[in-house]
Amino acid sequence: MSLRVRLILALIALCGLSLYFRAGTVPAVFDHGFVNFVETDPWYHSRAIEHLAMNFPWRMPADPYSLYGAQEVPTPPFFDCAIAMAAWIAGLGHPSQHLIDVMAAWYPALLGALIVPVVFLLGRKIFGTAAGLMAAAVVATLPGHFLRTGMVGYTDHHVMESLLSALFFLLLLMAIEKPGGYAIAAGATLGAYLLTFHGGSFFIAVVIGWVLFEQIRSRWPRKEPAPPLRPILWAL
Length: 236
Description:
Blueprint: H1 3-24, E1 30-31, E2 34-35, H2 41-54, H3 78-90, H4 97-127, H5 129-141, H6 145-148, H7 158-177, H8 181-194, H9 201-219, H10 229-235
Antiparallel strand pairs: 1-2
Helix pairs in contact: 1-4, 1-5, 2-3, 2-4, 3-4, 4-5, 4-7, 7-8, 8-10
């Protein structure tokens, strides 16, 4: 069996393990045909997703149940739009509430499992295959808030933040190594991240700070070559 096949099988096993921790250990989410979302924010997102899926592509501008006077909740749209579109397609333009709720409940767990191969590829590119596989194993089994926000029924945008941020850095490194379409893909991923999390502007500050640091480091004291600026500018 080749190394490539073994790596693929290992990643599939880690994705399955991650999905088990995110789905198999969560009680009472699917109860007698009813989807019981976890915490309060997932209930808000589920309402927004249901409204969007049933009125696609028109999004609910204000939730009359959020506060007396119909407070406008400034939630970025990408997280809700992605699953609402999937439910709308799965329901052939007329999805049932149960279909929407089931897909919305599974949504964070699947996103959490997708982080595993992205982290493997990112770790392998920076530190090598062994480190990438170890990082993927850590991400697949990491407890705490990271696991909680990616569990079945915890339909909130935080797990998508983790996925898109890791994917952006992976694509950015690929664009630096091989300029071209990867820079555009990195820019699209960054745009999706900013449409997922209102505080995402700090992420751009991190990238700009890293670029400035590398430009200074490359000139003093060892005069090593800095990463090319063109693919980074294209991505931004």
